[in-house]
Amino acid sequence: MVENRELIVITGPTASGKTALAIEMAKQVGGHVISADSRQIYKGIPIGTAVPTPEERAAVPHHFVEVLDLDQYYSAAQYEADAMRLLDELFQQNPRQVMCGGSMMYVDAVCNGIDELPTISDSVRQRVLAIYGQEGLYGIRQMLQLLDPALHDRTDPANPRRNLHALELCLQAGRPASELLTGEKKQRPFKITKYAIDWPREELFDRINRRVELMIEQGLEEEARRVYPLRHLNSLNTVGYKEMFAYFDGLMDFPTSIARIQKNTRVYAKKQLTWLRRDPSIIWIAPEALSNLRT
Question: pTM of the prediction?
């Protein structure tokens, strides 16, 4: 470990106030903010992904915010490599840096590392998409069970993206991908300190509901209409856009779509909390204690 180097991680469920805390922390330590959000990394959807405002990004330098086109493929493995390379540069400027985000795969990729997996080629990706288009998720699951029963059993049957990627890994590797998933933790050459804001459940849900209402006021519907022709892309397979697209397709009315965004965001927050509660290294901060927090 390089002396005095520390990565301060601000994580937590959606709408918990991560961005504001990360900016304040970065100001205190003189560091940058490294975003760990798998949707804020894309251009063209700032409202639905709640990207930091221009004022917030002017307060401290931000990285991995609005840098990819919506059709660009990007994985947690790529994020790990890119973030570690960036941190090496930033630590040479200042020994303390800040990471902020609620995409747990991205946070874990940097804090713990992820297994070395093959890069998926365009030909394999197109092959899997063709199977999905012809046979649906059932066909993907059937082929995955044939090639890698262990990975099939531990992949959420209701999550198409995870199943498609699992099959991609098997086909690209030419062997069961479960053999590559060791789960071994990598040692990092810096200290890692994690914080999360511990809102009471009902207060968190109220913040989520109000954030969705604010997104609507800011123009989420118009933003979703702009990207509607690209609705097949994985970058748009996320809460907020899926419900808006359903509204555009006539599957629900506008008030229902808003209520569904709020509900699905609350469900996502619950999943984030379940993941976070498994990590004993996280320091949970009471909201009222934020003003007194010292690094």
Answer: 0.82
